[in-house]
Specification:
Helix content is 62%, strand content 0%. It is mostly helical and 147 residues long. It has one domain.
Length: 147
């Protein structure tokens, strides 16, 4: 992680060039080419199956990414509940179950020092906008181990 550039609100989203610039576009072009082939050659088993296969591959790629992100969010939820139990003041600990997964995912970038105040604000103001929560963070703690 020493080679990673410093992370902040503007650059924290994970961009995976082989997926985002190769796999995704190739699968999208494949769907288009398969539909073009179907229209050009007419309905046949091969042309219909080609479109179905192209759609299946695109769907597989998208859901593979979605499944990985869902598992990551579940792990973050667990990690943040444990972390909150350690750093929140006693009066705020019973409110840990009130946090939504989105709130927990957003708060994970906050330092331990600022987390109690941010957690209280998020709960009291019923903040659900992930970006708005992240904008409140002053001492950004990077997370380089993302899906």
């Amino acid at each position: 992680m020493a080679n990673e550039k410093p992370q902040n609100l503007k650059n924290h989203a994970r961009f995976v060039p082989p997926f985002h610039m190769f796999v995704g576009p190739v699968f999208i072009v494949n769907v288009g080419a398969s539909i073009y082939y179907l229209v050009k050659t007419g309905i046949s088993f091969q042309s219909v199956f080609g479109v179905l296969m192209a759609l299946a591959l695109l769907t597989f790629a998208l859901y593979s990414r979605l499944f990985a992100l869902t598992v990551q969010d579940r792990v973050i939820r667990l990690e943040m509940r444990l972390r909150l139990a350690q750093v929140l003041p006693v009066d705020l600990r019973p409110r840990i179950p009130e946090f939504t997964p989105g709130q927990l995912v957003s708060l994970r970038f906050a330092s331990d020092a600022e987390l109690p105040a941010l957690a209280r604000k998020v709960l009291d103001d019923k903040m659900n906008d992930r970006n708005a929560i992240k904008q409140l963070i002053k001492d950004w703690q990077p997370d380089y181990l993302r899906a």
